[in-house]
Amino acid sequence: MKRLTSLSVLKRLKQKNIKIFTTLDFQRIFNINYESSKKTLLRYTKAGLFVKAKKGLYFLADDSPSDFEIANRLYQPSYISFETALSFYDIIPETIFEITSVTPRVSRDFVVSNLKFSYKKMKKEYFFGYTSIKTEGKTVLVAEPEKALIDFLYFVSLKKRKMSYERIDLKRIKKQKLIRYSKCFKDKKIIKLTRELYD
Q1: pTM here?
Q2: In the chain, what are the domain boundaries?
Q3: Nearest-CA neighbor of 84 among 65, 71, 103?
Q4: What pLDDT digit, counting tens, does each position of 98-149 carry?
Q5: Could you read off the pLDDT of 41-87 as tens digits, one per residue?
Q6: What is the CA radius of gyration of the chain?
Q7: Regarding beta strands 79-80 and 50-54, do their DSSP bridges make them parallel or antiparallel, or are they unpaired?
Q8: What's the CATH code, domain 6-60?
Q9: Partner of 116 for a Cys bridge, out of 27, 57, 98, 149, CB 3.0 to 4.6 A?
């Protein structure tokens, strides 16, 4: 096998607009076997060309993907929600220093380049209400504004989040959609919390 040079690797990845990839992705892109893919990734990660996000997942060091794209790829299936999405939509004023997502899998935390990526488990029937958003030329999955707020209220009902009504800008929320989503949880506490937002 012809040895892949750093320049040829970077050129091919940038031509394809690929910033984050698995070992298997790399194997397919460069038409090499799996072991060669692993060894090449290890070599260029040590050289500082790539950053290892987790076992088998890498991204470009000098042209890294957005935090949202990393979040979607780190732990699948998942979509960005809670305070991260609420801040993204300017529903709450805070700048968020942690990327929080919903997953139907076991809750997990990762730290990548000093940024925490947190995944909160919710039942499969609650894994809905997200949309595709384009960021930096890539499609990422983010909760709709109303679902991000309902996800947050669900965790308030579980006493895993604290409610601060004055922080929330309800002008950016569709009330009827919020109420409809709250009823999908079939939980009186969530319906009550939703109604209290407008009291």
Answers
A1: 0.92
A2: 6-60, 67-196
A3: 71
A4: 999 999 999 999 999 999 999 999 999 999 999 999 988 899 999 999 999 9
A5: 999 999 999 999 999 999 999 999 999 999 999 999 999 999 999 99
A6: 20
A7: unpaired
A8: 1.10.10.10
A9: 98
